[in-house]
Amino acid sequence: MVCARPLDPGERKLLRLRRTVVALCPAAEDALALLEEGNVVAFCDTGPSGPLGLAAAVRRHVRGRGLRPRGLDRRLVEAATLGGARALGLDRGRGRIGALAPGARADFAVYDARGRYPYSALLAEPPCLGTVVGGALAASA
User: What is the pLDDT of residues 98-110, one digit of tens each?
Assistant: First the structure.
């Protein structure tokens, strides 16, 4: 579901009950509320920084408001990765996408994300060293 305006609590609850994925592109003002309430969120790829860039922007916005919700970085990275797969219904079964696991497609990107907390390191927008698509190196720095 894509919406051009903020959703009220009742609308967010209805989407959650129906297990509807909310695609945010660009990140909406109510992204934090959607994530905090347990809605499935997907960030769309809208530019050179892609979904992780949108996740990083939401994090900056939330931190700029003085908030530090527990587990936010993980939920943001999942919205940027697995969220898109869920939105397309491709997060289950053989050949699934969005996560590295047995039976899943092994398309992935490698980032120079150093640090103690991997989700936070990814949201710091480190350089992408390369991507592998279909088992072949697609790009490198």
Answer: 777 788 887 888 8
